[in-house]
# Entry
Amino acid sequence: MNITENMQIKFGRVVLMGRPNTGKSTILNAILKQKVAITSPLPQTTRRNMRVVYSDSRGKIVFSDTPGIINKVDDLIGKQVNTEAPKEVGRADVVVCLVDISRPKSEEENKVLGLIRKTNAKKVLVYNKMDKARGSKDHLAEYKYLEDEFDDFIETSALKEKNVGGLLNIIFDLLPIGDPKEIEKDVEVLESKGGPLISMGSKEFVAEIIREKTYLFLREELPYTIFVAVDEIKDKRKLILIKASIYTSGDRYKKMIIGTAGKKIKEIGYNARKELELMSQRKVFLELTVKVDKHWQETETLNY
Ligand SMILES: Nc1nc2c(ncn2[C@@H]2O[C@H](COP(=O)(O)OP(=O)(O)OP(=O)(O)O)[C@@H](O)[C@H]2O)c(=O)[nH]1
Ligand SMILES: [Mg+2]
# Structure
């Protein structure tokens, strides 16, 4: 039988949750077949809830990517980031909970599970990073008992795009028929914020790409202390001119970001520019400045 025969169009909201680094943003990019969210090996790479629209012949879904929840946070921004996912979970028709099976289960998972237990939404458990979970790095068994709490489960590799289609099938199966008007309302809000797909104006998105590249080139060296602001985007016919600032909290960090003879900042700028050119199909001129602002965390948290 053709499975599409008795199919009903569905509308709903799906929220991705999990501790940091489990691959929430990576799997969202894989579902949309387009980069909408930045990813990195650092915890709480995603700092705000982000909504995007996915649609195919089966229906329309507003996906929310949320920042990973961590147990103990002492910095201001971390505390603020930790409040984001709980705000989003209440609106979910389906919650997708990602775990990283290449790492042992930890206390952090319990916090996420505690939140999920409070919702009436349908729940999917995703065993992600199956490509990496081999030999001593295979911790799948530690998560298995969680299946009882979930309506369905699947093993995936967001990075290698394995079983992403399978996950979407599960989501559509669990999704209620839903109200198209509600979803259209969400879509209108997203469009008013700068695009049908991305719930951020382009300035914010460009800033996110630069933050991703900063994380990429500084990795462990960089403490969790940067913030990127795009000051200007000018369309100059032949190219797009972008001026942006990377804020950090101390001179020591500023030196690290700039690097010896400006090597690091050049790498960051080059890679951000290449990606922005690929995305926009335009030539980009990117002017990056590193600034010290001890209070950026206070300023930034005011915007939450
Ligand atoms: N090997 C492997 N790596 C993955 C997979 N999915 C994600 N990653 C990597 O894991 C790291 C974290 O991925 P993210 O998508 O940023 O994780 P996240 O859950 O969004 O993290 P936060 O935003 O910090 O909560 C990145 O370096 C990804 O490339 C996977 O299936 N396999
Ligand atoms: Mg993320």
Remarks:
- The pocket of guanosine-5'-triphosphate (ligand 1) is lined by residues 18, 20-26, 39-41, 43-46, 67-68, 128-129, 131-132, 157-159 (CB under 6 Å).
- The chain has a mean pLDDT of 90.
- The chain is about 35% helix and 20% strand.
- The beta strands are 10-17, 50-56, 59-65, 94-100, 122-128, 152-155, 226-235, 240-248, 284-292.
